[in-house]
Each structure stands twice: as C-alpha cells, then as structure tokens.
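Try this one yourself first.
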C-alpha cells in the first residue's frame, strides 16, 4: 500500500480504492502476477478441486493449508483495518 500510495476505504462492507489508485494497483498486478481462468457455468462444482490441485496462494476459501494463508489472512485484515480508518 505504501509503495503504490494506496489509501483503501470502505464503501458499505467492501474495501475499495479510488479510480487512480485502482489503476495503479491494476498496472502493478499486470506486471507482477500470473492469472489463469476457465469459464464454467457452475464453477462451484469444481472450485474445491481446482484450489486443491493448483494451490492458488491468494485464495483463502478452502485453502487454509497453504503456506501463504496466514500472511494473506493477516494482510486482508490489515487492509480492512486501514480502510475502516479512512471511512
């Protein structure tokens, strides 16, 4: 958040960024992250199996055994805490 100059805030129950900050984050993500997807009508039918097989580190649902889970959980809590301060 500090490196990109992000100041999250709450909009209802959701943590959001303003338009300029969201674009900075999106640019950073395109440069540093890998993403894959597959369109499927009833994705929930295979979600747990996909998580188990691929082990996506940022997915917290059904992924508590991943080595990054505690870090991601704590980072999300910190994001929400900071957002609540700017509300």
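Now uncover the answer:
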């Amino acid at each position: 958040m500090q490196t990109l100059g992000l100041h999250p805030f709450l909009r209802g129950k959701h943590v959001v960024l303003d338009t300029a900050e969201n674009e900075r984050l999106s640019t950073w993500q395109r440069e540093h992250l890998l993403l894959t997807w597959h369109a499927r009508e009833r994705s929930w039918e295979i979600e747990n199996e996909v998580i188990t097989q691929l082990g996506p580190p940022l997915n917290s649902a059904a992924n508590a055994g991943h080595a990054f889970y505690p870090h991601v959980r704590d980072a999300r809590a910190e994001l929400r805490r900071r957002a609540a301060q700017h509300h």
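Discussion: The first strand starts at residue 9 and ends at 11. The chain is about 45% helix and 5% strand.
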